[in-house]
UniProtKB/TrEMBL annotation:
The lineage of its organism: Bacteria, Pseudomonadati, Pseudomonadota, Betaproteobacteria, Burkholderiales. It comes from Massilia antarctica. The chain crosses the membrane at residues 119-135, 279-300, 312-334, 724-747, 797-818, 865-883, 895-913. It is found in: Cell membrane. It holds the Pfam family Cation_ATPase. SUPFAM superfamilies: Calcium ATPase, transduction domain A (SSF81653), Calcium ATPase, transmembrane domain M (SSF81665), HAD-like (SSF56784), Metal cation-transporting ATPase, ATP-binding domain N (SSF81660). Belongs to the cation transport ATPase (P-type) (TC 3.A.3) family. Type IIA subfamily. NCBIfam families: ATPase_P-type. This is HAD-IC family P-type ATPase. It is a multi-pass membrane protein. InterPro entries: ATPase_P-typ_cation-transptr_C, ATPase_P-typ_cation-transptr_N, ATPase_P-typ_cyto_dom_N, ATPase_P-typ_P_site, ATPase_P-typ_TM_dom_sf, ATPase_P-typ_transduc_dom_A_sf, ATPase_P-type_domA, Cation_transp_ATPase_P-type.
């Protein structure tokens, strides 16, 4: 078997939906010779014999007892999760960093020079850093593992004589899988029967086009890629239906074999992770430059070599933002968790950051912008008859009226139309009973609504279906926009019933003359203009249709039976979400398979279409060349009657304009567009597994508003990371400047090396990671999307640094110089300087929470994690000040409590200056808002 380039993602995918941890689930057994595909050439056996070998039954499936027994025997159908790293391994990893190496060198130098206390402190700091890092990494890993559990795959099986939906991890050898287009294959299985089955196996074999499959036995020597009678775990059904006998599960599957090969492979870094690593590298260069500067200045001043060396090393360490990578992992994990809580399951980490940059959301209509609660409200029959149907919901209550009058007597035209839609239909209508007191439906709501309409007209659904059994079918497909079923009547000959989009069905119709077709087109447009979803229905007697390809031969041969218009009300919350999008600089675009008029009417009701916007349908899009499309994109708000392939073209055109695109999708054919979009969004309820696997996000409620919520969280994550970067920068620059100023101005060193280390490693790590837990500021969706090339340290941040650091440096250095010149003992002055710097850092953490809102405005308790971190940091600092053993180690003296007050007041200047700047920002904003309002008011 070839280990394809896709193997890693395939294994990740399978781990994603088979959620067992080595620690929790029953032990995964070693490869069992009796079960592995390689040991049993299942493809060489007739399906009946395979069934016998696994004691299964193609019509009833396994019994629950047999499943339970086999589950115990074979273990769950899951790939082993990468073992959770043991505590001490994670701890050891913390020591594998250049920063720690530098600190070890510093400790060794300190020891060599006889500064045993300093050496002990440096080692203590290294250990504390490692322990904090281990805790934070564990926290990040636990969050990720919890999130993986959210995407469990469901499969359909035959058990106890009936169809059931079960979790893929509960599959056992001998289970009968029921497969249909869009399904993911949950285990390796031998086909029992297959109808027009095609399977996408690219992830396993590298074969880029779907492979057609059948149940015929093959020679034993047939290679994996040619086993046309087998389906494999982790692949997808792209067309057709099949039943298959599960032959191998979990680690015994073909993907399990790859999992063993790829064990230990790491998930690729997200673009933001790459940028942050790069950013870190620049800082390391800056740190080395700083080391050289301090050494040169210190030695030129004639300060003792050992002291200068230790301080230079500590300074170097202070510039390296060692907390940043962990802070970023936590930020992404927190973002994912918050998104999951709001119904958006993140399947690729990179989606979290890309979401914040989204500039266009291309959304399906049905179910995403509308409620997908269909009700047939109007019928059109030949001769221009229009029948209105009253009532909402699935209960068969609602009168049928024609021109305001109740229908009188039997109406053969009406009955022919309604019986056709009952037959060409896979839905079921269930009366109240058991625990439900209401009528419910199974299957596609579009089809269920047709059954309800038939029921209201008194059609006996069961009788009609019994009298005309189905002998062939062409399932609905969003490319042809039609569905057809062939039925044998009691009399014998076959009839084909076709229903679908009016343009598609009317193209097949003849017989009734051009005038009738003309009238039908006009009626369809009229209904679509009223926001109705329209279906046309036709039939062909004495005909049997086996495949979608057969539609091509039918032009002009079908007889039109009538049309039905369905209401699908827009979702109320979407209107709010659409205006939130606009305020956030994001353009919503509807991309629908429905008619342009229907799409435009609904888009207008939701605010997606504004003055000057227009709709374009698939045929018009086909006629536009790329330049015309690019030019027109500015005011196209609705793409209607588009084929899935055209969705890809729309995404690419938007991206060519520089847009960052989120695209929703649910069908098999949507996968390329979902994969191409910057953020592919699959529907959790109606979405196929193929669509979900191609998407970066799955939304559990299929709701547009959920996508908008996820965008907001994406922005929060990015903003929080920038808060951390700002915080780290301000602190480092303060220390560096105070030190350099002292060296240049001929003062003794204002801080001991261990004090610098303490501030940078212990205090900082208690705050940075907690800063990323900040809740949304509330104005994320009133800002423009984050530019793709946004700098991690942008101009606004540089401005803040430029305003803050002089204040902090003046406070710290000014105090140091003043106290020094007043003859205060050097150790006490150093301790006070050290304390002012720590205080500045604490105030700064509060500053960094928002760029424009006052700390007093959003309340000190809004981020409890940060307050906890601050409290811990204060307690630790108090220990260093007032606990004698630590005094000795950190070269500190206890500061008399009364002296603390001026220090706090001085350091708080950092807060006040920032509050002043924020006030100015708010004033400017309000002013410009006022300027906008005033002309409008006058
Ligand atoms: P969206 O892509 O926004 O969800 P949609 O659901 O209307 O829109 P499709 O599902 O591709 O898009 O449907 C396109 C058209 O096909 C519909 O307008 C309707 O006329 C027809 N149609 C939809 N469902 C069926 C079905 N089950 N059988 C026959 N025709 C259907």
């Amino acid at each position: 078997m070839r280990l394809s380039q896709y193997s890693f993602s395939l294994v990740r995918e399978c781990r994603c939906y088979c959620t067992v941890g080595r620690r929790r689930g029953p032990p995964v057994r070693s490869v069992n010779a009796s079960q592995s595909t390689q040991a049993h050439p299942w493809h060489a056996l007739e399906s009946g014999i395979a069934m016998e070998r696994l004691s299964s039954d193609a019509t009833t499936g396994l019994s629950s007892q047999a499943v339970a027994r086999r589950l115990l025997e074979h273990g769950p159908n899951a790939l082993p999760e990468p073992a959770q790293r043991a505590f001490f391994i994670v701890l050891l990893r913390q020591f594998q960093s250049p920063l720690i190496d530098i600190l070890f060198v510093a400790a060794a130098l300190a020891a060599a020079m006889g500064h045993w206390g300093d050496a002990a402190v440096i080692l203590g700091v290294v250990l504390a850093n490692a322990l904090i890092g281990t805790y934070q990494e564990g926290r990040a890993e636990r969050s990720m593992a919890a999130l993986r559990k959210l995407s469990t795959l469901q499969v359909r099986v035959l058990r106890d004589g009936g169809e059931q939906a079960v979790a893929a991890r509960d599959l056992v050898p001998g289970d009968i899988l029921l497969l249909a287009a869009g399904d993911a294959v949950g285990a390796d299985a031998r086909l029992i029967d297959a109808a027009a089955l095609a399977v996408a196996e690219a992830t396993l074999t590298g074969e880029s086009v779907p492979v057609s499959k059948n149940a015929a036995a093959l020679p034993e020597a047939t290679g994996l890629a040619d086993r046309r009678n087998m389906v494999f775990s982790g692949t997808y059904i792209s067309a057709g239906r099949a039943r298959a006998l599960v032959t191998a599960t979990g680690i015994h599957t073909e993907v399990g074999a790859i999992a063993r090969l790829t064990e230990g492979a790491e998930e690729p870094k997200t673009p933001l992770e790459v940028r942050i690593t790069q950013f870190g590298r620049y800082l390391v260069i800056a740190a080395i430059g700083l080391f050289v500067a301090v050494m040169v200045l210190g030695l030129a001043r004639g300060l003792p070599f050992s002291e200068v060396l230790m301080v230079a090393i500590s300074q170097m360490v202070s510039v390296i933002p060692e907390g940043l990578p962990v802070a970023m992992t936590i930020a992404l994990a927190v973002g994912m968790r918050r998104m999951a809580a709001r119904g958006a399951i993140i399947r690729r980490l990179s989606a979290v950051e890309t979401l914040g940059a989204i500039t266009v959301i291309c959304s399906d209509k049905t179910g995403t912008l509308t409620r997908n609660e269909m009700t047939v409200s109007a019928l059109w029959l030949l001769g221009g008859r229009v029948i209105d149907i009253a009532g909402v919901g699935y209960a068969p209550q609602g009168d049928l009226t024609e021109s305001g009058a109740a229908l009188a007597g039997a109406d053969p035209q009406l009955m022919a139309l309604l019986e056709a839609v009952v037959l060409c239909n896979d839905a079921e209508l269930l009366p109240p009973g058991g625990e439900t007191t209401q009528w419910t439906v199974l299957g596609d709501p579009t089809e269920a609504a047709l059954l309800v309409a038939a029921n209201k007209a008194g059609v006996e659904i069961g009788d009609v279906r019994r009298n005309c059994p189905r002998v062939a079918e062409v399932p609905f497909d969003s490319d042809t926009k039609m569905m057809a079923t062939s039925h044998r009547s009691v009399a014998g000959p076959c009839t084909v019933y076709i229903k679908g989009a009016p343009e598609a069905v009317l193209r097949l119709c003849g017989g009734d003359g051009q005038a009738a077709l003309h009238a039908a087109h006009a009626a369809a447009d009229e209904m679509a203009g009223r926001a109705l979803r329209v279906l046309a229905v036709a039939s062909i007697d004495n005909y049997r249709l086996e495949s979608a390809a057969g539609f091509d031969q039918l032009a002009g041969r079908a007889t039109l039976l009538g049309m039905l218009g369905q209401i699908d009300p827009p979702r109320e919350e979407v209107k709010v979400a659409v205006s939130a999008c606009r305020a956030a600089g994001i353009r919503p675009i509807m991309v629908t398979g429905d008619h342009k008029l229907t799409g435009m009417a609904i888009a207008r009701a939701l605010g997606i279409v504004q003055d000057g916007d227009r709709g374009v349908d698939g045929a018009e899009l086909e006629r536009m060349n790329d330049a015309e499309l690019l030019e027109g994109l500015d005011n196209i708000a609705v793409f209607a009657r588009v084929h899935p392939a055209q969705k890809l073209r729309i995404v690419e055109a938007l991206q060519a304009r520089g847009d960052v695109v989120a695209m929703t999708g649910d069908g098999v054919n949507d996968a390329p567009a979902l994969a191409r979009a910057d953020v592919g969004v699959a529907m959790g309820i109606t979405g196929t597994e193929v669509a979900k696997s191609a998407a970066k996000i799955v939304i559990t409620d299929d709701n547009f508003a959920t996508i908008v919520g996820a965008v907001e969280q994406g922005r929060v994550v990015y903003r929080n990371l920038k808060k951390v970067i700002l915080f780290l920068f301000v602190t480092s620059i303060d220390e560096v400047l105070v030190l350099l100023l002292a060296l240049l101005a001929g003062f003794p060193l204002p801080l001991a090396a261990v004090q610098i280390l303490w501030i940078n490693i212990v205090t900082e790590s208690t705050l940075t990671v907690n800063l990323v837990m900040d809740p949304p500021d509330g104005d994320e969706m009133r800002r423009a999307p984050i530019p793709r090339n946004d700098r991690l340290l942008d101009n606004a941040m540089l401005w803040r640094i430029a305003m803050l650091t002089p204040m902090a440096v003046a406070a710290t250095f000014g105090w140091f110089v003043w106290r020094q010149s007043n003859g205060v003992p050097y150790d006490l002055v150093r301790t006070e300087t050290f304390t002012i710097l720590a205080l500045c850092q604490w105030f700064n953490a509060l500053n960094c929470q928002s760029a424009s809102r006052s700390v007093l405005q959003f309340g000190i308790l809004r981020n409890r994690w940060l307050i906890g971190g601050l409290a811990l940091s204060i307690v630790l600092h108090a220990g260093v000040l007032y606990w004698p053993p630590l005094n000795a180690l950190f070269h500190t003296l206890p500061i008399p409590p009364a002296n603390l007050l001026p220090l706090v007041a001085l350091a708080s200047s950092v807060l006040w200056v920032e509050e002043l700047r924020k006030w100015g920002v708010r004033l400017r904003r309000n002013g410009s808002a006022l300027r906008k309002i005033l002309p409008a008011a006058s």
